[in-house]
Structures are given as C-alpha cells and as structure tokens.
Design brief:
The complex is a heterodimer of chains A (90) and B (978). In chain A, 14% of the residues lie in helices and 37% in strands. By secondary structure, chain A is mostly beta strands. Chain A has one domain: Folate-binding fold (2-Layer Sandwich). A 4-stranded antiparallel sheet of chain A has the order 3-4-5-6. A two-stranded antiparallel ribbon of chain A has the order 1-2. In chain B, strand 42 and strand 43 form a beta hairpin. Classes of the chains: A mainly beta (90), B alpha+beta (978). Chain A: This is Sarcosine oxidase subunit delta. Chain A: Pfam families: SoxD.
Chain lengths: 90, 978
C-alpha cells in the first residue's frame, strides 16, 4: 500500500502510523454533553466504501494526514494535511 | 535419454550431482528434472496420501509431483520442485515422503486401501472417542501423509529483503513480455522485466517456433541482448512475482544462490522484493492442464508442453516410445517435434472426431481417448478407447494436453474474478482487476506467437502513451499465427481413479462425491476434497475440478465460479519474507552510553522496550540478585547511588504557546511554573484514562523539556504532534525528541549533593538548587543540565550532559559514589526504591486506570480544559468502589507477595465472582525488612487497616495482607526535600 504525504510525496505505508477515523478532527467542546463525547471517543462507522482516517507520517516528517480511501476497492482517493484541515500553521 | 543437437544446455560443461545418494551427470543448464529424465530416472516422488509412485508432470514452477529435498543438515530445504531447481556440482537431492526408499515405500499400502480413503474419510471415520483425535489419529495420519520435512534446526542461511521502483513492471519474458519490453524500452520508459526462469524467452525456448526466419529462442536472446544494453531497462531472472497488492505494489522472490555450488561473498540464498510500479503488464503465459483418466498419474505420463520443453530446451527424450493424447491442435506439435528429433511416436490420440492432423510417421486415433494405463513404477502402456473399441498401445511416455489455462492468478489477488471464454475453454483476466495492470499474450487468451507479440507491443504502446511518452516505430516480427482449436475434455468416463489434483491426491470420484454430499459450492468442494490446497495451489487441476463439479451439479462453468487465488503464486519461504528479522534482527536494540561500562561491571542487561538496562551490579561474594539489589537500595537510602535514566523520553518543547500547550495536554497547570523549576505532570487519553506521567522542566519562558516514561516515549511524541497539528493548530509551538541527545544520570541519596559538588564546576547548595529546581550546569567545562527531582524518594538529582560525554560521566559518577560508600544501582533497586515510595510506573498506569484510581484526582485542574478531562469526569470513572491504588503488607505466616495475584475478602472463596482487586508491583523492602506491594483494591483508600487475602492461582501462593497507604517510606517527603 502506498500513501502520498502532502509534504514528502508517495511513500510505503510502513512509514505511516495508523490512528483511526478522522472523526478525531472534530473534538467537541467540554460542554457538548455526554452523547457528543461518547460519539467522539467511542462510536465509529464501519463503512463499506469511502472513509476518511488519520495517519501520521511517523517515519518521515511527522505530519498528521487525513487519508480518504475506499474500504472496498482499497483505492486511496486523496490525502491532505490534518493541519490545514484544522487550520494549523505547518 | 539425450537427443543429439538439441537444447539450450552447454554440453561442454558436465555437472555431477546426487539423487538419493546415487551420482548422476547432467549439463550446465539442466534442472534436476531434466537431468534425471536424461538419465532415464522417471520415478521422482511419492504422492501425498496414497504414496503412489510419481514422476515429473511439468517442466515449470507449477510442478505438483516431483518435489524433492535439497541440501542437508540445518540448511536442508524440503518440497523443492525438481523442475525449478537447477543442478550444480555437489548438489545433494533426496526424495521425500517414502520409506525405506523411493522404490519400495511401505506406506504405499495406503494405495491398496483406496476404496476407503476418499474425500471426507478422515472426518467421518476418526470421530470417536473425541480425545483420540488429537493424541492418536491426527499424529498417525500426519505421519503417513506428507511432504518433506524441515530439519528442525536453526536456519543459518542468509536471506534479504529489497525494494525496487519502476514506471513499468513486465511480469514474464515470453514473446508478449519481451515484445512489450522492447517497445517500452526503446521509448525510454523505466522498465523492470521479471521472469522466473534462468533464461528469458518463455515458451520460445521450449518450442520449435520460428520468428523472422530464426529459431524463437534466438530471437528472444537477441531481444534480451538489446534490452541489456538499455540504461532504462532492468532485467531480473530467477525471480517470481508472487503477489499483486494495493497501489501498484508487487511482491517477488528472487532465487539468488540456489543454483550455485558456492555462494558469492555475502550473497543471500533468496531475496524477497517489494516492487512499486506505476504500470504493469502481465505476460505470465499459460499453464497446460491434464486430462483425467484412470491411472493418469503414472511416472512417464506428463504434459505435452513439458515433453516438448524437455525435448527442445534440454535435449531430452522423456521416453523411447511416446504416445500423445490431446483435445486440441497444439498437442499435435508434440508428435511432429518428437518425430523430427528421431523419437518413436506410438500414436497420436485426439478426442475430437474431426481433428485435422498434419505430420506423418505415427498412427493417428481421432474420436479416441486414453482410458487407462499400466506400469507400476513407470508407464508401460495405455488403453486407447475409440470408435472401434479398446486396444492397448505400448508406450513408456504419454504426452497429454487438455488445453491451456491462462495464468490469471495475479489478476485475482485483489479480489478480481476471471472471465470464462468459451472459445478457448478457459478463464481470462477481467480487465481492471488490478489497477494499473493489463494482461497481454497467452495469459490473456492469445495462444499464437504472432498474437502474443502483437498484444505485448500494443500493451506497451498504451502504457508509454499513458505515462506521457512517445513510442518509436517497432515493427512486429513474423511468427506463426495458428488458430487454437479445442473441444473441452476434462475427464474420461470409466472405472478406476482418475486424478485431478496430483499433489493432494484428489480424484474425479472425490469431487463427484463432494457434490453428492451437497458440497456444491466450489469453495466447499475445495475444502472437503482438499482440491488445490497443496503447495502447487492446484495450478494444473483447479479448472478441471471445477468443470467436473459443474458437470456433477448440472451447472455451467461460469455459474459454478472459481475459488479465490491468493498470494503467493509460488511458495515463498518465511525466512525470505522475514529476512533480517531473525535473532537479534527481530527488533532494534537501543543501548545507553553507559552500556559498555555496565556490561564491564558484570551487570545482566534486561530489556525495557527496545532499550537494554542493567538489572543490578553484582559484587564479589554475592550469590543472588537480591543481595546486590538490597545493597544498591541501601546505597541510595544511606549514602549515594548512581543510575542511568537516559532511556526516559525527553522532548524539547519550544515556542510562544509552549506553556499553554502543556496546560492542554497535562491535567495540571504548567503556565504557572517558574523558569528554573520542574513539575510532575499527568497526561490522560481522551477517554479519561491515564496515558503517561513524568516531569517537565521550564528552562526558559518559551522552553520546556518534558520527560516521559521509557515505554511511552514514542506514543507521547505522536500524541503531542496530534494534539498540536489537529486540535490546537493555532498554537505556535514545536517539539523535538532529544532522548538520544542527552545522557542523563540519577544521583540519589543523602550524600548526592556532596558527590555533585565534587564534580560540578559551580557548587550548589540548598538555596540555589532546592527541591524541583532545574537549570544549566557544567562538568569539567562541558555544559549540561541539572534537575533536582527524585524517583527514589531521597534527596536526589538528575544530571545531563550531551551523549558523547555519557560514558565518561557515568564512570566518574560511579567512582565518586563508591568513594562515598555508595555506587551504581540498576533496575531492580530502582524498582524497589520507587515501590517503597509508592511511585507508579506502567505496571500501575496500564491503560485501564484513571487519575482517580491512582489517587491523583485533584491533579485534574478545574480551571482549564485538558485532554481527557471531560471523559474522566464520568460517573463511573470516579466511583469510590472502583479498584483504587493501595499498599499491601503481609501480616500472616506467609510473607511472599507476587505481582498478578488477586485480592479477596478473608473467608470468601478465591473465585472470579469474589475478586476484589489485583497486585501490580511487589518488592522486598530492605529498608522495612519485609515484602511490600502495590495493588488496586475495590474502594481501596476506604479499607486502610483491613486484612484481606491475596491469592496467586498460578504459583499457588496465598498471603494475608493488610491494606495500607501506598507510600511506605518517608510519607511526608522530608527526605526528598531535605
């Protein structure tokens, strides 16, 4: 499997650490309530098809990356820095 | 028997080798199979289940029968295909799965019991009593059935892993692959051509085809020579592409040295390649399939294409009187090639009524089939059944052909399913099955040489265009373009056993029986009969078995479907895939700067994650580790001890928002920390459980150094990056791991300051370096850092210098400590000291404990948000009846405590339902003179003073304990601050 780090280019997936669903981008406010937090920490969709998840180019530049891919075809549809996705200065 | 003037072997270079301790002679270029056939040795193996005598069936990597063991001792390799293994001088080959010898195999008695041993026999027979299966039935059955065996000894052979990248990967170098390489190579594309054979050319080396008026093999050699001259083309032989994976990744196994008598210096036996290709052309050719008829498995019966390969490529006539049997025109070539080479052809049997046979010099039987065979250890004759009834034909070799199956395997590795093509009675790849890969040539159903050349050229042109390049004009050479005529013939009806899967001994009857017993799905049939489940993965037999199943269940072949082809295409040794990871290579080893000194001092090194740390430093006269450990604890409690703590993670954090960032990742506040001070911090996961702990020092307004536990250093670094990049991107802060840049040593004990003042350039006192102070220091002019922090609970410091001074500093500290009645201490003493003080490690913060559980609930600041705060406040996370941290002291006659033991009420049975907690850390405290422990007990802090049972079911130890506070030594911290 190959992933394209937006900073370093196309790399083997062994350079990346996989975290999980990109839902982690949207941290609720402390007052958001139990359900919102339960959703954020525990509940994940299990899509057959397009999904977005978080990878870190740990063996490279360290950037956290949002990878859009298809769980059925294994096609990688796109990668983007989690930073800009969340407004970071990278 | 060799045939004169034929073959691509070097007759001027004879090669001696052994088979079953008998010496044989072959030529350079021979495989074990071709050399044995040349010596008249037809019997090469015994079958898996019935121990039937078997000879070679094919001439390639799909071989099911001729499996042999190569080499001896630890390096012996079982199940090597005699058709793939090249001979070299001194090669030691043995037959397998036969006792006492290949010719006289006692287990061939199994063959007489065949009426009972059909599909499902074992499942149905050995059912009772249940316990007998594991102890008796299975071991006996396994011993009777089987392949070769490993030596059971450590394999010292060298293997490698390697990576390759290219724009175009061409898999297979037959006519289609070579033509594609020529077109793409001339267009300047970065091409990698991979072929599993020792010479490129594929079937061109095995046939008498003519290309542009020269022999096909000569054309192939000329193309290879041209490709070798191109800087943009790489050629790999003896390399099999074994799998297709996501995003243009392919696996390949290169047999680097198995054909050599002596290995080049440092060369591996095999190399496992990962190839990344922007585009790929599959030109893997086709595999010929047998016809199932009674006793079609005798040595001497082989594939027609294999007979031509042995004749044309190796100059070997596989028999003196050869019969040919087929259902297609391609088989006819076999008879003409043999006759031209001067080999007697006993007859050409074609199942088709209207078969047009050209060529003379042999009897022709159309509308006829082979219905049986004779010959115990080798073929002596066949029974031909035609319109005029049965008659016997004497023959010592039968060349059979049921047609060709395109080698579609790789196109199915990513869940693709092949498409049935009625006109060739075979499956072809479904386009798009592997993104970026196209099939060309015989693997795509093009069965004439001209069609293969054209398909290879067209595929390459499309790829070049796709990659943005330009092709120059490459004219297609002239080649045969005969139409492929075939009428399906899978199994000849009749009595007796007709083999489908030769390697797993599956017959037509077995497949029919599976259908009768309602294993109608092809996947069920496969598992019930074990069809296609041997090391050859049914390359010869799957399609025929499928056809028999389709017939037995009254369905068409496409409707019946295929089983799933999975990687690897041919067997890959685990040693090659895991190359470099055996023994010490299994995981990286991290050494501290004091490693060599510690080993010199006799310290046994213990693993801490990837690190190696000293357990203890034994002294003369000490006989147990406890003696050394107790002594080292005493150093720290009474004088001064020195310990390398460099393995703790150290993260340098800088930036205007560094303090605010730390407030967010730690439960407690760091923005209020003064410059020159250190604070203990607790980190939670977002789910509210403790992630890690450690101290963080503020070296400047915008500069902090965080320490993490040894085990969690990597996780914490990743976590910080995540929190910053994803959750707090507005913060201007950066992190760098500096774990390996600093050598850091704990100097602990009442005389620690005395020791330091001996070596620091500027002395310290209690006002300049109070408890939790930090700052810059220097030792012998070398700038470093000094922290007054304590894990042992004593008056202690940690001193850090750049790593290159680590060893010298350690030696110096230990020497000074010894002069002050102290010395070095290791992990054992460090652990005792921290348990005495009630300090936690990952034994306690193991992922399921909360700040509340370890008594740190108040460390979660109420004034700010932090990671994990919201979830840590959930009702269940602060329930007083949770398992919470306490100390344990033995109070009964048994004084032993063990980590992992469980806690119960006195008088309650020690069963799961009564579980009240568990012990996490134990130590013998030399300071207190008895064992102590840390445990998590339900409602723990409310039970101080209670006596409970601690039961270790594994070691059968039961101890009565008193629940106490987790701090055993100096609970008010006077020694630490002193």
């Amino acid at each position: 499997m190959r992933l394209t780090c937006p900073l370093c280019g196309e790399r083997d997936r062994r350079e990346f650490y996989y975290q999980g669903d990109a839902v982690s981008l949207n941290r609720p406010s402390p007052e958001a309530g139990v359900d919102a937090w339960d959703d954020y920490v525990h509940l994940r969709d299990n899509p057959a098809g397009e999904t977005r998840d978080m990878w870190q180019h740990e063996g490279g530049c360290g950037a956290w990356i949002v990878v859009t891919r298809n769980t059925v075809t294994h096609e990688v549809l796109g990668t983007a820095l989690a930073g800009p996705a969340a407004g970071a200065r990278i | 028997m060799r045939v004169d003037d034929k073959g691509l072997i070097d007759r001027s270079r004879p090669v001696r080798f052994q088979f079953d301790t008998i010496g044989y002679s072959g030529f350079e270029g021979d495989t074990v199979a071709s050399a044995l056939l040349a010596n008249g040795q037809r019997l090469m193996g015994r079958s898996f289940k019935y121990h039937r005598p078997r000879g070679v069936l094919t001439a390639g990597s799909e071989e099911p029968n001729a499996l042999v063991t190569v080499g001896r001792g630890a390096a012996q390799e079982p199940n090597v295909r005699a058709t793939v293994q090249e001979i070299h001088s001194g090669l030691d080959v043995r037959s397998q799965n036969a006792w006492p010898s290949l010719k006289t195999d006692v287990m061939s008695l199994n063959d007489l019991a065949w009426p009972f041993l059909g599909a499902g026999f074992y499942y149905k027979t050995f059912m009772w009593p249940k316990a007998f299966w594991e102890k008796l039935y299975e071991p006996v059955i396994r011993r009777a059935a089987g392949l070769g065996a490993l030596s059971g000894r450590h394999n010292r052979d060298k293997y490698e892993r390697a990576y390759a990248f290219c724009d175009l990967l061409i898999i297979g170098a037959g006519p289609a692959g070579l033509m594609a390489a020529l077109v793409a190579g001339r267009a300047g594309v970065d091409v990698l051509v991979v072929d599993e054979d020792r010479v490129m050319g594929g079937r061109l080396n095995a046939e008498t085809y003519v290309i542009d008026a020269e022999p096909g093999s000569a054309w192939a050699a000329a193309v290879v020579a041209e490709l070798q001259g191109m800087a943009n083309v790489r050629l790999m032989t003896r390399t099999t592409v074994t799998g297709a994976y996501d995003q243009g990744t392919y696996a390949a196994l290169e047999r680097v040295s198995s054909h050599l008598p002596e290995r080049a210096d440092g060369a591996p036996l095999e190399t496992f390649w990962r190839i990344v290709a922007r585009r790929a052309i599959l030109a893997s050719g086709a595999l010929e399939r047998p016809v199932a008829f009674a006793d079609n498995d005798r040595p001497g019966i082989m594939m027609a294409g294999a007979v031509r390969a042995y004749l044309n490529r190796w100059g070997v006539a596989p028999g003196q009187r050869v019969a040919v049997f087929g259902n297609n025109d391609d088989a006819h070539r076999t008879a003409t090639d043999l006759v031209e080479a001067g080999v007697e052809v006993a007859g050409l049997i074609d199942s088709r009524p209207g078969a047009q046979v050209t060529g003379t010099g042999f009897p022709v039987y159309t509308s006829s089939v082979v219905a049986g065979s004779t010959g115990r250890h080798g073929l002596t004759g066949i029974a031909v059944q035609g319109p005029n009834g049965h008659h016997r034909v004497e023959a010592d070799c039968l060349a059979m052909s049921g047609g060709w199956n395109p080698t579609v395997h790789l196109t199915c590795h990513m869940n693709g399913r092949p498409t049935w093509r009625e006109d060739i009675a075979g499956f072809v790849p479904t386009p798009g099955s592997v993104p970026g890969l196209v099939a060309a040539g015989a693997c795509n159903g093009d069965f004439s040489t001209a069609a293969c050349l054209a398909a290879g050229s067209a595929a390459a042109k499309a790829v070049v265009k796709d990659l943005g390049g330009k092709t120059t004009r490459v004219s297609l050479p002239d080649a045969e373009d005969k139409a492929y005529q075939i009428a399906p013939l899978w199994a000849v009806p009749g009595k007796g056993r007709a083999w489908l899967d030769f390697q797993n001994d599956v017959t037509v009857k077995d497949v029919k029986q599976a259908a009768t017993e309602n294993f109608r799905s092809v996947e069920h049939m496969k598992r019930y009969t074990t069809q296609g489940m041997a090391t050859d993965q049914g390359k010869n037999s799957n399609v025929a078995a499928l056809a028999v199943l389709a017939d037995a269940t009254g369905r068409a072949i496409p409707e019946t479907g295929t089983t799933t082809f999975r990687p690897p295409y041919t067997p890959v040794s685990i040693a090659a895939m895991g190359a470099g990871a055996q023994g010490a290579g299994f995981a990286p080893q991290r050494y501290t700067t004091s490693h060599a000194v510690s080993v010199e001092m006799g310290a046994p090194m213990i693993e801490a994650g990837l690190w190696y740390r000293p357990g203890y430093f034994p002294r003369k006269g000490e006989t147990t580790w406890r003696q050394a450990c107790d002594r080292e604890v005493e150093y720290v409690r009474e004088a001064v001890g020195v310990c390398d703590v460099s393995t703790l993670g150290k993260i340098d954090i800088q930036g205007p928002d560094a303090a605010a960032f730390l407030d967010f990742v730690y439960t407690n506040t760091f923005s209020t920390l003064k410059v020159g001070r250190v604070r203990y911090g607790l980190m939670l996961r977002e789910d509210g459980h403790v992630m890690d702990d450690g101290t963080t020092a503020r070296l400047g307004e915008q500069h902090f150094v965080m320490t993490t536990t040894t085990a969690a250093a990597g996780n914490v670094m990743r976590h910080l990056e995540f929190v910053h990049q994803v959750l707090r991107p507005e913060f201007d802060v950066r992190f760098t791991s500096v774990t390996e840049q600093w050598a850091q040593f704990a100097v602990a004990g009442p005389r620690s300051r005395e020791l330091l003042n001996d070596i620091l350039d500027a002395p310290i006192d209690k006002d300049s370096w109070p408890f939790m102070a930090c700052g810059e220091t220097s030792v012998a002019g070398i700038a470093g850092r000094l922290f007054r922090i304590s894990f042992s609970g004593e008056h202690a410091y940690e001193v850090a210098l750049p790593s290159r001074y680590g060893e010298s500093l350690f030696r110096l500290l230990v020497k000074r400590a010894e002069s002050l009645s102290g010395g070095a201490y290791g992990m054992e003493a460090l652990n005792v000291l921290r348990i005495e003080k009630g300090h936690i490690t990952h034994a306690e913060i193991h992922g399921r404990t909360t700040a509340f559980d370890i008594g740190f609930a108040r460390m979660i600041s109420t004034k700010k948000d932090c990671i994990g705060k919201t979830m840590a406040a959930r009702e269940g996370m602060v329930d007083p009846m949770r398992e919470r941290l306490v100390g344990l002291k033995p109070v009964g006659p048994v004084k032993q405590l063990t980590a992992g033991a469980h806690v119960f009420e006195r008088g309650a049975a020690a069963i799961r339902e009564n579980d009240r907690g568990y012990v996490t850390s134990v130590a013998f405290s030399p300071t207190l003179g008895h064992s102590i422990g840390l445990a998590f007990v339900r409602g723990g802090p409310e039970r101080l003073g209670d006596v409970m049972r601690v039961v270790d079911h594994l070691r059968d130890i039961e101890t009565d304990v008193e629940i106490c506070a987790p701090v055993f030594v100096d609970p008010d911290g006077g020694r630490t601050r002193g």
